[in-house]
Amino acid sequence: MNDHAQIFSLDAIISLILVIFALGIIFGILETNSYNLKEQQIFEELRIAGRTAANVLIASPELTCTLTNSSGTELFSITHCLDIQKVQGISTQDLELPSDYQFSIQRTGILLAGEMIPENSAHIYSEKRTVFFYDSLAEPITKQKWMECKTGNPACALTEPEEVMISIWRVP
Amino acid sequence: MKKGFIFTIDAITALLLVMALVGLFATSQENNPTVNVPVDSLNQKTLDQSIAFNYFNQTGNQASTPTAQYRACNIQYIYDFTETQLEKKVKERKICEEI
To answer: Is the predicted ipTM greater than 0.95, yes or no?
Structure first.
């Protein structure tokens, strides 16, 4: 009787310890996976919003250079050509971002539009895009000016292709 | 002695079984780091460059031999209005980026 009770107790205790140990590891893994999944979802949401904003920035006629003919009639907009005058005043709506998002557009580290990237934000998505700039303040870009760039003429009014960084984050 | 021996075998077997199951579960649940992001970023970069450089008639980075872990290329086929594909005068411009 005594022996049986002792054997059962040891088995039960060891088994219980093993089960608790195993459950602890499994719950730990599940918790980590749950956290990772949540982080991935947040990142994926940011990535989609950021990619959309970047695509809008480089292709939207409201933000890109407008090519005109010699008489000033607008012909079409040029993708990847950012008009400084247009870009400087853009809002989150212009970039198709939800209202609870903020953005920053930096050219060689200098803020071009939006707000400075907050230091305390945990989730920020940034993307570098290759673009070039034109300032339409003086006059719109004509086809003639445009072709000067194509042929490598020093009189080209566009900047050389450079990287612009767009960053987005959700406002708490 | 006999009971102790039986208990030891049981315990070791149970321990090994639990460790194996937990190990299998942990391995199956492990999140492998994704490589989509750097490749996607490189793809986007080469696409942007191929468009932007085309406006300026520039060639960009045309490295032919891969040297880094991640690499993406964009090949642009340029047709002149006077050319046709049959005449094989299509210009090919390849832009590659690596990290």
So the answer is: no
